[in-house]
Each structure stands twice: as C-alpha cells, then as structure tokens.
Amino acid sequence: TVQQAAAPTQPRSQTRGAGQRGGAAVQRQPPAHAAGCRGGAVRLGLALYGADPTLERAARLAPVMSLCSRLMHVRDVAAGTRVGYGGSYTAQHATRIGILPLGYADGLPRAAAGRFQVSVEGQLAPLAGRVSMDLTAVDLGPDAAQVAGAEVLIFGRRHGQSRPIEELAEACGTIAYEILTGIGPRVGRVTVRRSA
Questions:
Q1: Cα radius of gyration (the chain)
Q2: Long-range contacts of 121-127, Cβ-Cβ distance < 8 Å, separation of 24 or more
Q3: Contact 146, 74 (CB under 8 A)
Q4: Under DSSP, is residue 155 helix (H, G, I), strand (E, B) or coil?
Q5: How far apart are alpha carbons 148 and 169 in whole angstroms?
Q6: Alpha carbon distance 22, 54 (integer Å)
Q7: Which pLDDT score is estimated for 15?
Q8: Is residue 194 helix, strand or coil?
Q9: Does the predicted model carry a pTM greater than 0.70?
Q10: CA 183, CA 108: separation in Å to the nearest integer?
C-alpha cells in the first residue's frame, strides 16, 4: 500500500506485511512498487494466471489458462422435455441440447447450473439442468448448427473467443482462485509456449 511504501524503514512490528505485497496491491498502487520499495517482495498470486485479484475487473490481464471441452453428444428435444438429474431444466421450446464430458469432478462447480453460459464455437449457450459429476448439458438453441465434436470454451481464451474466469466465479458465488485450484486431475493439460 502507499503507507507501507512510504515508510519501509519502520520496524516490522509497526508495518506488518510491509515487506510483502500481493498482486491486488500492485494493481492498485503500481507507482509505489515501481519505485522499488526497499527490501519488499511482490507475491503476484492470481495475477500470474491473468485473473483480476482486485475483484473489480479493472485489470487488463491476459489469461494464461483456459478450460475447453468438446460436445460429446447433441440431441434435438421437444418443448417440455426435462433435462438432467431431477429434470431441473425444462425446454421452453423445441431446442438442441449438447452434452459436455465435464462435470463437478473436473472442476465445473455445481453452483454454475442455471447461472452460467459457455461459448460453443463462439455462440453463448446456457447450462441446462444440474452440473453432474461427469457430464453437463447446455441448451444450444433451436437453430443451432453445432454437432458432436464442436469446441466449447468454459473460461479463458481460444480462437479469438474470450470467457473471463471472473464471470464463472461470480456466477458460482466464489472467487477465481477456487475455480482455478478446483480443476480436477481428469482434465488434460496442454502447455502452449509462445515466443516473445
């Protein structure tokens, strides 16, 4: 903070934490950190993943992690069709439902059900019904052309699409840290290196 940066020589007992600052503090007070606070250290934390640690979505950070999947099954359903455990989602009109091979065991929070949209080949599609352990249904819409194999972006960036992780966290009533650390071991990891 500005006070900590202005008085870096005070005894540590008077400036608890002054020698260490988090990513949110760096974003809020960058001049203090650019000045090179004597003996200070910056713990970037969530900012390393390109997520905004201030919870204000004011940062212009590029995400370094994306969660993607592909539709494993697509089915046209009639109006009134109930979808998912307990039939918690009812199609209001004839529509196309897509199934993702991704559920809460993989890190997609159950709380996202009915509150979040994924991007299916650039088109937003709401989650339809409950997020189950291994599968999640999405309502692609009545005029959808997507078929099994279509790419789905849950959060991050891919092929010009962007879905901020903060939106998923907000929809679930949690923070981006929890989403990022909750990605399960069944989810494949692909490391992409880009030259500067």
A1: 21
A2: 121/146, 121/150, 121/151, 122/160, 122/161, 125/98
A3: yes
A4: strand
A5: 27
A6: 10
A7: 45
A8: coil
A9: yes
A10: 8
| Tens place of pLDDT per residue across the chain (196 aa) | 555 555 555 554 444 544 445 555 555 555 454 455 555 677 788 888 888 877 666 667 888 899 999 999 999 999 999 999 899 999 999 999 999 999 999 999 999 999 999 999 999 999 999 999 999 999 999 999 999 999 999 999 988 888 999 999 999 999 999 999 999 999 999 988 776 5
Which residues share a beta bridge with 82?
90
**What is the residue-wise DSSP string for 109-152?**
-GGGTTT-EEEETTEEEEB-S---SS-EEEEEETT----TT-EE
46 token code pair: 């969530």
Cβ-based neighbours of 85, under 8 Å, separated by 6 or more: 129, 130, 132
Q: Which two tokens stand for residue 154?
A: 């849950």
Least Cα distance to 85 among 139, 42, 128 occurs for 128
Q: Which of 121, 123, 102, 122 is nearest to 113 (CA)?
A: 102
Extract the tokens encoding 26: 């760096």
9 and 33 Cβ atoms separated by less than 8 Å: no
DSSP 61: P
Give the DSSP letter of residue 64: S
Query: Which of 66, 35, 44, 23 lies closest to 179 in space, CA to CA?
Result: 66
DSSP state of 2: H
Cα 22 to Cα 55: distance, rounded to the nearest angstrom: 13
